[in-house]
Protein: (2Fe-2S)-binding protein
Amino acid sequence: MDRYRLHVNGRQREVRVPGDTPLLWALREELGLTGPKYGCGVGACGACVSLVDGQAARPCVRTVEESEHTRITTIEGLSARGDHAVQRAWLELDVAQCGYCQPGQIMAAVALLARTPDPDDEQIAEALRDNVCRCGTYPRIRAAVRRAAELARGDR
Structure:
């Protein structure tokens, strides 16, 4: 087994896996971070979305080796208290139904708001278009992204 140092959720972590291991498996199985979900394994559903160097990325299609010199943030590292504006908006608007896709949806929304602090509906739809919600809570998800933008600005 190879040894890799990953910077995850603000901490250096070490994993011993083959370099071609999907980052998702290292996060879930080696580091115990179960927020990023396995959905499809080919980067099509968005259930695993996490941030890599601040950008939305799909760890199911990234290897551990290519992730070694990056900064990775999973839903667990977003806010220890659950008080990030996106998390607060999700709770306020009761977005989740089954909840399986929600970590990926939230992390994609965080990446969007970091680059576009006041997105319109088209920008929200584009940023989240590859995140599948089988329960169909898309209207609540869009509303929560708009609400998170308000909360981040300090609007009540």
The chain has a mean pLDDT of 95. The domain at 3-78 is CATH 3.10.20.30 (Ubiquitin-like (UB roll)). The first helix runs from residue 23 to 30.
